[in-house]
Design brief:
The complex is a heterotetramer of chains A (325), B (534), C (520) and D (282).
Chain A: H1 16-47, H2 53-57, H3 65-74, H4 81-93, H5 107-141, H6 145-160, H7 163-177, H8 190-219, H9 222-229, H10 234-271, H11 277-286, H12 290-318
Chain C: E1 3-4, E2 18-23, H1 38-44, E3 52-54, E4 60-62, E5 65-70, E6 76-81, H2 95-106, H3 115-118, E7 122-129, E8 132-137, H4 144-149, H5 158-161, E9 178-179, E10 189-194, E11 215-220, H6 224-232, E12 238-240, H7 244-251, E13 256-262, E14 265-272, H8 282-291, H9 294-302, E15 307-308, H10 332-341, E16 346-347, E17 353-355, E18 358-359, E19 361-366, H11 372-384, E20 388-393, H12 396-405, E21 410-416, H13 422-427, H14 449-460, H15 464-481, E22 485-489, E23 491-497, E24 500-501, E25 517-518
Parallel strand pairs in C: 1-13, 2-11, 2-12, 19-20, 19-21
Antiparallel strand pairs in C: 3-4, 5-6, 6-8, 7-8, 9-10, 10-11, 12-23, 13-23, 14-21, 14-22, 15-22, 16-17, 17-18, 24-25
Helix pairs in contact in C: 8-10, 9-11, 14-15
Chain D: H1 18-36, H2 73-108, H3 110-126, H4 129-140, H5 144-171, H6 174-181, H7 186-198, H8 200-222, H9 234-242, H10 250-281
Helix pairs in contact in D: 1-2, 1-10, 2-3, 2-5, 2-8, 2-10, 3-5, 4-5, 5-7, 5-8, 6-7, 8-9, 8-10, 9-10
The chains are: A mainly alpha (325), B alpha/beta (534), C alpha+beta (520), D mainly alpha (282).
Bound molecules: adenosine-5'-triphosphate (2 copies), magnesium ion (2 copies) and nickel (II) ion.
GO molecular function, one term (chain B): ATP hydrolysis activity
Keywords (chain B): ATP-binding, Nucleotide-binding, Transport
Family (chain B): Belongs to the ABC transporter superfamily.
């Protein structure tokens, strides 16, 4: 005799649409806040870099004083920091990311040409991650203990191999020796295979583990016994009941992973000589190309915000229990 | 005609450790057979062996294990699936978790219909099944998810899924454990109707009262074996096995008031000499409302007034959500009332602050339903009590008083059994030398026999130390057994109060009458009245 | 397999084919008038021609200008321009185009980071007639024609010069043997197609018509290993900047050829701060140069692909003085003697020399990770003669800051240039980097008056012979002074499959795509 | 790459064979010796360049061979443990400290404090971990110290969130209520009951994330944002050996194996500890 019974109170709430709208509005506001915060933090961080922006910009060149003056005037580098900052924010508000100091073209344009390649890589990695993890988790879940140990051992090993090293090994074997995949470039699908594998290795290992444990945990749930007692097959059980539950923690995990893939892509893009935002950022940071760095940071933050909104939406769709709030 | 189910010498082992050892029973068509026994005695495993769902790693052996002449020992997976749901329905033990929380209730009910292709048009049948199972507004409920249903509704929906494919045998594993007395009554009624309509029923319960009212035949299990069986009237009035006898004795009821239940504390057989003292707590007209965004406010206390005297036990009863816990927490000053006052020792909580408030706190302690949750997980039993009273001698004395052995208290509390944990909680509460202890459902999670021991310890401590109890429970039997005075609450209001015997034996308010009437165990009560004590 | 210095044609050239090339570096802006990088010169050269061409031996040859006259005060240059030359956009090449280009380069709005300073003497241009242009200088500058020969001052279509200079960071339109419709895409590369009308290569070119190749596709691949893999796996036909290990391997792999040519100019060198610190003492500098086994380090780090340096200039630079080579020898005994003489006669417990209790320590400042191995080995070599080198690997900002302040003892760089004039760029007193002047190349902060006088003489020189004579004097004095520690002669490397024929290099080390052809 | 910077890896109990734990302990012991007292493993100076013995394959004198500068690779791998592991440990330690302090503050400072701190954490969280390290490296110059700070900053929000949630959970728990009921002062309850019980999960998370930190720190060195040359560091050694891969395998294989083994050992042990922790509380 316990007191677990839950009263079903008649729910008298505002219409669903209003509620959804309010949630969306609050989220949008939060997202804008995060973006402004990220832009602000990056701006002042970059200003804290040693050496004046002008010097870094003109490093190792023999620009004449006239050119120097021109650069300072054009990028308003002689204004006070705060003037620069607010001018920058003001432009941001109108959707103008400014002009890259070094590349001499609009930040948005510079990022825009590289972005598709990075998104391609991230998307391929995500697809690979999801497909491989579901397959591996389902294979791994029903096994005996020693097989499970083996699976988790291999996962541990994969997580322990640095992705850039894995990338080098893949390149050496499959490009340089076997010539199956191109060694450089990012123009076509075959150029996507090895980078996606190198980048997906860690997520696959992590997601597989979470998914498999989710499967095992769900298989222990009472409703699984109830479903089995209705005489449904194991396949139907997994498809209709178990996978959805196991997928719940994975959706939020995938949100995190997508965010971090943008960071991981930097390394992979370097290893595989791929086009992408990662390499753009690395050189922008080295060149103290402030508008470009902030642009990339904002982009990454936007991806993060969007992905997390998607993850919440997915959770909302998958799990009716979250719809109450 | 052979019985529908025939089990002979069933042995189920997990990793070499037998959980069921040599159980034999029959279930005839249209018969209600009950398995009773304490937690872990093997009831569920026994029942699930009829579905081939004993769990991962179970080794099932039997001389005979047959359903309608079909030898279950040699079934393949496909044949099992033909049996499950279609011929044998299961209402699994954990009803609240037995509906997939991610699927609509209707889909769950429809699943066996589709799986076994029972009907062409599924939806009308689902609605009919839900209505049949006593679910009001089936059109609405069908589209809801399980978390939107109350425990009772979930239990009924689950029964609907189990009955959907019209099985010949229904296994109901603890179908009313989590339910209020009133809801419990409805569910039991539903099962009784099904049995009357010809479905054989294998009923599992730890609650003798439930079993006694419903079953045609009872098997009492202990440690994986059936220790006694027979028709309920026989088993309950004339228990042959000491275990059955102890089990019966342990049930707290009005009739057993003032006596020891467990037989472990002889002192309780002495007459009770308590006289209630001065007024310790005065509650005047307290109101408490909870506001949750997007919902109308909930009134958890609507003008409650009462007093607690030194050394007495005040019982608070009422169904779930009626505000019992809220009132209890207000007594401790943990929840401040919206209006009205709670005075302790003549001073309202609102007038106490800082060190004075903390000092007053020590004089009114609490015992929770889940004792483990109230212990710091890093602490051993002794540390837990020592935190309340640094004097090691006093700690040792109290531990002895509640019946905890020295060897048990230097381990982390989670390694103790449920009953031991609750004794530890009592020891801690007593260690602060309180005048009052608020006990919020202290025995609801315990087996009858363990419950008996804990109740005995509480009564014993009160007699020795003169501490007053505010005893919150939804179990009328327990309250009747322990309380001097009783408050009956409903929707935050006190609907009736007075001496325990007066209120519970001759209820005046209609709500109280319903509560009392809903308590199962007519057969049991009759049996107990003829049972010899000891 | 094999290695060539500069391959002559093997068989008769065939027209057609697409050459796929992977290169290491990309410019931040394609337009060499704006960008200072070698990458922009490399990628723009197929697109733009120059007024004059600087070929082997530093000789200036006619190109878009068929002839020119220099006034006696050497302030006015009158160019006669080639007729019937067209830009890729159809515009006609004429005197106005030349004027527009030069004026545009020196306009600060262009933010030219190199081209403008190459012609810092430029005053103005005058269109004499359609095919004659007169250029006036503010002061005589004997490097002016060399400057005009670089892609940085290549002539671009006047129509493209009027708009936002940033537009030319992607597409440059010139009169070159190739054209590029899509232009340069960052991190990706650039594709060229043949300019079928091309008929105006520099004088003496082997191919005097349109290019042999139909097209060139250039991909950016910063990693040397990946480039090499791309070449050996057949993904590309040729790669630029072959790493030394790969270069050695390529030379011995069937089906591949390593094309290579030394860069004229200044070898890769360590530059001592001659103005302050231990290296202000000539004896210490000389000891440092003599006491370290530079050739061995070069062999260790570059696997024999780069030869050890033997002078202030590389041997292929016009005006190189070979008579000084014996001075660049490995002589530990002499080094130790010099250091003893400089007062660093005692050693501390770790074996480093000390003077007045102070350790002989020099700080080597760098910001390019590419020199790590070299620095490590130089450090080890210096330790042998008791000199401690502290490696300071700095970020760009700090590096520039300290460069301008002169807060360092050693710094490294090389400088490719077609002639000995480069000596002044790196050792001219007016080129010392200071906070006021900004970045400049005299990192040795060298001011020896005798050498400065030689530079002045060379600048004024009426003919090449006397100019070279002045630079030879400067080389001797610089060597005596140990104002620079040359390490190795940089080479340009171009690895290709043996289908790629007739690979030759331009003055600045880029391959001459105009005459390359592919075997079918 | 998924780093601990970004994922609160929910790793559940995995039973690890005893032999695995023993092997992990041995590896970690060797790594610990290498990190703290590399002199015990090798008497060779990792930065001593023997110009006469460059790029020697492994032999009796040089167990792992020598690099292009004639430096003993065994000595460099041994000394490299210090850089990689200490960066990982340092970053994890800093992140733990920061996470616990900030998380507790967020939970304890009431609605507004919580809101402000949480939003700030969101901002940091929105920037992928490695990008953050790039920024920090750009500002402070690439070094082991910056890598440590950068990794720590990137990890703090994740840890702080866990701590905050735990503090809130523990604070609402019955045993904290019971402690208040015994009349103990609030701060005492927070220190004695709330914080110790709240930090458990984040410690478990930290043991697992340590491995990811080591991988991340070697990745940073690989792109040149780690400790500066000539400091021996595994990632940097891999980057340096990369160009030589066609002529010499040993400069890339040994550091790579060193990272992998270390991270594997750390992960195995971390999971083991986490499993033990969970068994203790569940
Ligand atoms: N899948 C399993 N693996 C191992 N042991 C099990 C498994 N299922 C049940 N047991 C063990 O078998 C014994 C009997 O369990 P069972 O669930 O039948 O008890 P019960 O009488 O139904 O108890 P309760 O009243 O608590 O439901 C217990 O000791 C239990 O721990
Ligand atoms: N902190 C709270 N916030 C909002 N609502 C609350 C809160 N605490 C209790 N309630 C609501 O107040 C009502 C009374 O709750 P209370 O816990 O006092 O009931 P109860 O009689 O103890 O029930 P049970 O037998 O289930 O323990 C319930 O509807 C409950 O949902
Ligand atoms: Mg059971
Ligand atoms: Mg309650
Ligand atoms: Ni109960």
């Amino acid at each position: 005799m316990t007191s677990l019974a839950i009263k079903s109170e008649p729910r008298r709430v505002s219409p669903a649409a209003v509620r959804v709208l309010r949630v969306v509005a609050v989220r949008l506001l939060g997202a804008v806040g995060v973006l402004v915060g990220a832009a602000t933090a990056t701006f002042f961080l970059i200003q804290a870099m040693p050496g004046s922006t002008t010097d870094v910009l003109l490093a190792r060149t023999q620009a004449s004083p006239a050119v120097r003056a021109q650069v300072i005037a054009e990028y308003r580098l002689d204004d006070s920091l705060f003037t620069q900052f607010f001018a920058y924010l003001g432009k941001l508000a109108t959707g103008d990311f400014g002009t890259s100091f070094v590349l001499r073209r609009p930040v948005w344009d510079a990022i825009g040409t590289q972005l598709p390649r990075t998104l391609e890589l991230v998307a391929a990695t995500l697809v690979l991650t999801v497909v491989a993890s579901v397959v591996l988790a389902v294979i791994g879940a029903g096994r005996r203990r020693w097989a499970r140990s083996l699976f988790s051992g291999v996962e541990g090993l994969i997580v322990a191999v640095p992705p850039f090293w894995l990338g080098l090994v893949l390149l050496g074997v499959f490009s340089f020796s076997l010539h199956w995949f191109p060694a450089i470039g990012s123009s076509d699908f075959s150029g996507l295979v090895l980078p996606a594998i190198a980048l997906a290795a860690h997520p696959v290992a992590v997601v597989t583990r979470v998914l498999r444990e989710g499967l095992l945990r769900t298989l222990d749930e009472p409703f699984v016994l109830a479903a089995r007692a209705r005489g449904i097959s194991e396949v139907a059980l997994r498809a209709r009941h178990v996978l959805r539950h196991a997928a719940l923690p994975v959706t939020s995990l995938l949100g995190w992973i997508t965010g971090s893939l943008i960071g991981g892509a930097v390394i992979i893009e370097i290893v595989f000589s791929r086009q992408g935002v990662g390499r753009l950022l690395l050189s922008a940071v080295q060149n103290k190309d402030m508008p470009l760095v902030i642009g990339v940071v904002l982009l990454a933050a936007t991806v993060f915000v969007v992905v997390n909104a998607l993850v919440d939406a997915a959770a909302w769709l998958l799990d009716p229990r979250t719809r109450e709030h | 005609m052979s019985p529908l189910v025939r089990v002979r010498d069933l042995v189920v082992a997990f990793g070499g450790r037998p959980a069921v050892r040599g159980v034999s029973f029959d279930v005839e068509r249209g018969q209600v057979v009950a398995l009773v026994g304490e937690s872990g005695s093997g009831k569920s495993v026994t029942a699930r062996s009829l579905l081939g769902l004993c769990g991962r790693g179970a080794v099932v052996e039997a001389d005979e294990l047959a359903f309608d002449g079909l030898d279950l020992r040699s079934l393949g997976e496909r044949q099992w699936r033909g049996l499950r749901g279609r011929r044998v329905g299961l209402v699994a033990q954990d009803a609240l978790g037995s509906l997939d929380p991610l699927r609509r209730v209707g889909a769950e009910v429809a699943e066996p219909l589709r799986e076994h292709r029972i009907v062409d048009r599924v939806r009308p049948e689902v609605l009919r099944l839900l209505a049949d199972a006593g679910v009001p507004e089936p059109e609405v409920r069908e589209r809801q998810w399980s978390h939107q249903l109350s425990g009772g509704l979930r239990q009924r929906a689950l029964i609907a899924t189990a009955l959907a494919a019209r099985p010949e045998l229904l296994i109901a594993d603890e179908p009313t454990t989590a339910l209020d007395a009133t809801v419990q009554k409805q569910v039991l009624g539903l099962l009784r109707a099904k049995a009357a309509a010809g479905t054989a029923l294998l009923l599992i319960s730890h609650d003798l009262a439930v079993v006694a009212d419903l079953a045609d035949y009872v098997h009492v299990m202990k440690d994986g074996a059936v220790v006694e069986h027979g028709v309920p009237a026989d088993v309950l009035t004339n228990p042959r096995h000491p275990y059955t006898r102890a089990l019966l004795n342990a049930v707290p009821t009005a009739e057993r008031r003032g006596r020891g239940l467990s037989g472990t504390i002889p002192a309780l057989d002495q007459p009770d000499r308590r006289v209630p003292g001065r007024e310790l707590i005065t509650v005047t007209d307290v109101v408490k409302r909870y506001r949750v965004r997007g919902r109308p406010p909930i009134t958890a206390a609507a003008g409650v007034s009462f007093t607690v005297r030194a050394g007495e036990t005040l019982g608070i009863v009422g169904e779930s959500g009626s505000g019992k816990s809220t009132v209890g927490r207000m007594l401790l000053g943990l929840v401040a009332p919206d209006s009205g006052a709670v005075e302790f020792d003549g001073v309202p909580w609102s007038a106490r602050a800082g060190a004075e408030r903390r000092a007053a706190r020590r004089r009114i302690q609490m015992i929770y339903q889940d004792p483990l949750a109230s212990f710091d997980p890093r602490y051993t039993g002794r540390q837990i009590v020592t935190e309340a009273n640094p004097d090691p001698e006093r700690v040792a004395e109290l531990l002895r008083l509640v019946g905890l052995a020295e060897s048990q208290v230097d381990r982390p509390a989670r390694e103790l059994s449920g009953g031991q944990r609750q004794r530890l909680a009592i020891a801690r509460a007593l260690a602060a030398d309180p005048a009052v202890i608020v006990c919020d459902e202290p025995v609801s999670a315990l087996d009858v026999s363990i419950q008996a021991q804990v109740l005995d310890v509480l009564v014993d401590a009160q007699r020795r130390l003169g501490v007053a109890y505010v005893f919150i429970s939804h179990d009328l039997g327990v309250v009747h057994h322990i309380a001097d005075r009783v408050l009956v609450m409903r929707d935050g209001a006190v609907v009736e109060s007075g001496s325990a015997t007066a209120v519970l034996a001759e209820p005046r308010h209609q709500y109280t009458k319903d509560l009392v009437a809903a308590v199962p165990g007519t057969v049991l009560r009759q049996a107990q009245s003829v049972l010899k004590p000891g | 397999g094999g290695t060539t210095e500069a391959a002559g044609p093997s068989g008769a050239p065939v027209r057609g084919g697409t050459l796929r090339v992977a290169v290491a570096d990309e410019p931040e802006c394609l337009d060499p008038q704006q960008s200072p990088t070698a990458a922009s010169r490399f990628l723009a050269r197929p697109l733009v021609d120059s007024l004059v061409n600087q070929g082997g031996g530093g000789r200036i040859a006619p190109w878009l200008a068929t002839e020119w006259r220099v006034s006696t005060d050497r302030l006015a240059y009158t160019f006669t321009l080639r007729k019937n030359v067209k830009f890729a956009d159809g515009a006609v090449f004429d005197a106005a185009a030349v004027k527009a280009n030069l004026d545009r380069v020196v306009n600060p709005a262009t933010k030219s980071l190199l081209a403008a300073s190459l012609i810092s003497a430029y005053d103005k241009s005058t269109v004499v007639d359609e095919h004659t242009v007169e250029i006036r200088l503010k002061h005589p500058d004997s490097t002016f024609l060399s400057a005009l020969a670089t892609p940085n001052l290549g002539i671009q279509s006047p129509a493209t010069l009027t708009g936002d200079p940033a537009a030319r960071c992607a597409t440059v339109i010139g009169t070159g043997p190739f054209r590029s419709a899509e232009g340069f895409a960052s991190q990706k590369g650039i594709s060229y197609t043949r300019n079928p009308d091309y008929a105006w290569p520099p004088e003496g070119a082997e191919n005097d018509g349109a290019a042999w190749l139909d097209a060139i596709e250039i991909q950016i691949a910063p990693d040397a290993g990946a480039r090499y893999g791309a070449l050996t796996s057949g993904q590309v036909d040729a790669i630029a900047n072959v790493s030394p290990t790969n270069a050695r391997e390529l030379g011995s792999t069937n089906g591949f050829v390593l094309h290579s040519t030394p860069y004229p100019g200044i070898p890769f060198s360590y530059w001592p701060n001659t103005a302050s610190g231990p290296f202000a003492d000539r004896k210490v500098r000389t000891a440092f140069r003599l006491g370290i086994d530079w050739p061995r380090i070069t062999e260790n780090v570059y696997f024999g692909v780069y030869g050890p340096a033997k002078g202030v200039l590389t041997p292929t630079t016009p005006g190189y003085d070979a008579s000084l080579e014996s001075q660049y020898r490995f002589d530990v005994a002499e080094a130790n003697r010099l250091l003893d003489g400089a007062g660093y006669a005692t050693k501390d417990s770790q074996g480093y020399r000390t003077k007045d209790g102070k350790r002989l320590t020099v700080r080597h400042m760098w910001s390019d990770a590419g020199v790590t191995d070299l620095a490590t080995q130089v450090q080890a070599g210096a330790k042998e003669i008791g000199i401690e080198t502290v490696e300071e690997n700095l970020d760009g900002g700090t590096f520039v800051d300290r460069l301008l302040k002169g807060d360092y003892d050693l710094i490294d760089t090389n400088f490719a240039a077609p002639g000995p004039q480069v000596l002044q760029v790196l050792l001219g007193a007016e080129n010392i980097p200071t906070p006021e002047r900004g970045i400049a190349n005299n990192m040795a902060r060298y001011t020896a008056p005798a050498v400065q006088a030689d530079f002045a003489r060379a600048l004024e020189a009426a003919d090449q012979e006397s100019q070279f004579k002045a630079y030879a004097d400067a080389q001797r004095k610089i060597t005596d002074d140990a104002a620079v520690f040359p390490i190795y002669d940089d080479r340009t490397t171009f690895g290709a499959t043996s289908r790629v024929n007739s690979v030759a290099f331009l003055a600045d080390g880029a391959p001459d795509f105009h005459q390359i052809w592919l075997s079918q | 790459m998924v780093t601990a910077l970004d994922t609160p890896t929910p790793v559940r109990r995995v039973r690890i064979p005893r032999a695995g734990i023993a092997a992990a302990l041995v590896v970690l012991a060797v790594v610990a010796i290498a990190a703290l007292a590399p002199g015990l493993l090798t008497g060779v100076d990792p930065n001593h360049a023997d110009l006469g013995a460059t790029l020697r394959p492994p032999d009796w004198d040089h167990w792992f061979g020598t690099d292009q500068n004639g430096r003993d690779l065994f000595a460099r791998v041994a000394h490299g443990a210090g850089a990689s592991v200490l960066i990982g440990l340092g970053a994890t330690g800093l992140a733990l400290l920061g996470g616990i302090v900030i998380g507790t503050l967020a939970a304890q400072t009431g609605r507004w404090g919580d809101e402000i701190i949480s939003r700030l954490l969101d901002v940091v969280l929105a920037v992928p971990g490695l990008l953050l390290v790039f920024l920090v490296a750009a500002v402070m110059g690439a070094s082991g110290f910056t890598a440590t700070i950068g990794l720590a900053v990137g990890t703090v929000p994740g840890f702080a969130r866990v701590v905050r949630a735990e503090v809130l959970r523990v604070r609402a728990s019955t045993y904290v209520e019971a402690a208040h009921g015994l009349g103990h002062p609030g701060p005492r309850v927070v220190l004695v009951h709330v914080v110790p019980n709240a930090v458990g999960p984040v410690f478990a998370l930290a043991t697992v994330s340590l491995g990811a930190m080591i991988v991340a720190s070697s990745s940073l060195s690989f792109v040149g944002l780690g400790p500066k040359p000539p400091t021996a560091e595994w990632g940097a050694m891999l980057a340096a050996g990369r160009d030589l891969a066609s002529v010499a395998w040993w400069p890339t294989v040994f550091p790579g194996v060193a990272i992998t083994l270390t991270v594997l050992a750390v992960t195995v042990l971390g999971q083991h500890l986490q499993a033990r922790f969970e068994r203790r509380t569940v």
